[in-house]
Amino acid sequence: MGESRDPFGHDTSGEAELTDPWVALEPGADPAERVRALRRAHDRFTEGGTVQRPVRSVVADSWRRSARAGVAPDGGAGVELMDGDLGAYRAEHPLARVMPLVRELMGSFAADGEHLLAVCDAQGRLLWVEGHPTTRRRADRMNFVPGARWAESAVGTNAPGTAVALGRPVQVFAAEHFVRRVQPWTCAAAPVHDPRTGRVLGAVDITGGDGLAHPHSLGFVQAVARAAESHLALLAPPGAGADDVLELTALGRDEAGLLAGGRRIVLSRRHSEILVLLARHPEGLTGDALLCALYEDGSVTPVTLRAELARLRRLLGPGLLASRPYRLTVPVESDVTVVERRLETGAVTAAVAAYGGPLLPASRAPAVVRLRHRLADALRTALVARGDPDLLADWVHAPWGEDDLDVWRALAAVRPTAAVCSRTAELESELAAPPGWARPAARRTHPRSATSAQPPPP
């Protein structure tokens, strides 16, 4: 049989799939033998970049992402949030509201089985780690502690970090972990989604010994995650009722999501732009100002805009969109303002956690483009100033940051691995290329260079 390779050139001809590829051990498998085989496979991968039996595809893919992120197999987790910073961040996090339920469902299981329950945020930061005291002391030695960063881009394959990276439940057994010091452990984790927006808020995890490789542990954490989502759906937004606030989600998506009066609405691109701009201007915008803010083409008539606003008014329902000037009649909470508010208070980590990507990335509306650039630049400037290698790594391994030379340089200064230095040098050579050189189609330009000068804000 011929050798098969993945798009990265790695040998995959020896990969084997279980009946359920998301379960670490099929019934009847010998855990000790599987550990030995996985260690051999891990050594082969870290030495030569090829994957062999019995590595599951979900783990092989994670190993490759870990290697591309520059994770060292002999590295470890770093603690990012401590003391007051950790307490303040946890108190603000949406999952704080479901922790009593998580403890009720998982606490006894963790304590009685000498396991740990853990809850992380969407960036893989551990917020709570609780359970058997002896197990906690052992976990402390590898920094599996509250405030530590267990994102896949920081410590490689692990259940909480990989679960939030994939947005689905995952089980990681022994030497499937990318970092060797974590390989004595087995864990299962499931992401918790915001029931209103669908975004990943974090994950619930159970960590302990080889016994957790049983399929039941994967089903268990998934059931807990679903219970947490159901509980969040029952809780009213703090400080406001469902009928007197609009919630707008516009980062990282071309069509914004709106929660209005308990209804979830997916807006058209133009309606998304209008809502973003009206949310920025609670005092309202005149028709002329809104026309200039929305359209590059000066030939677009006020009649076209009025037709769009009429359609939006029907979509929102009575009383929410007023005119003369055009304005929203209820407060709007958007993910853009959340990021801005956190940056203003110096909470860079929390701002990154709330940043789902560029604002309406396909929009060419002049005022939206300007706001998109301003927010991204403020965030990346704060990241470079902070110099946290894990936050910088998350940015450059996201689609919007993969060609961001300034952030790659900042990452190279604090984490000068071969992969990071190579990518930085590649981008610098592209920057120094002669004027007639054609940039490869796969490259993404930095948001600041995507658009020429824009008209002043409305």
From TrEMBL:
Keyword DNA-binding part of the UniProt annotation: yes
Pfam families per record: GAF
Biased segments, Basic and acidic residues type: 1-13
Region described as Disordered: spans on this chain: 1-20, 429-458
BP terms from Gene Ontology: phosphorelay signal transduction system; regulation of DNA-templated transcription
Protein name: Transcriptional regulator
Biased composition (Polar residues): 448-458
InterPro entries given in the database record: GAF (IPR003018), GAF-like_dom_sf (IPR029016), OmpR/PhoB-type_DNA-bd (IPR001867)
Domain OmpR/PhoB-type residue range list: 262-328
GO molecular function: DNA binding
Alphabetically ordered keywords of this record: DNA-binding
